[in-house]
């Protein structure tokens, strides 16, 4: 195996591990949200998750900025990035739930 092939193999393995960790972390948040829904209205839990995501995204953007000026320059770009990513994820999950309804109808 060449060095390039070995690097590609390692890169794919790292990406696979990152994807698994991504889902694992998301599942932790979802499990906590489901637990909260036992005692609190689910719409409040959803709004809290959105708030937490916005707050954490702002923190990450700020912490990655070299200065206040750089942060201010990147605000619009960061907002665009986060909203586009959320939009893609939301659409994908809506499609998945739509197919669940189709499966129930066909049963």
What's the topology here?
Elements: H1 3-36, H2 42-63, H3 68-106
Major beta sheet summary: none
Number of strands: 0
Helix-strand topology string = HHH
Helix content: over 70%
Portion in beta strands: under 5%
- Taken from the alpha-carbon principal axes, the silhouette is extended
Q: In CATH terms, what is the architecture of the largest domain? A: Orthogonal Bundle
Name a few traits of the molecule.
107 residues; mainly alpha; Helix Hairpins
Question: Can you walk me through this structure?
Answer:
With 107 residues, the protein is mostly helical. It is built from three helices and no strands. It has helices at residues 3-36, 42-63, 68-106. Helix 2 (42-63) runs antiparallel to helix 3. The model has no long low-confidence stretch (mean pLDDT 92).
Quick summary:
The chain is built from 3 helices and no strands.
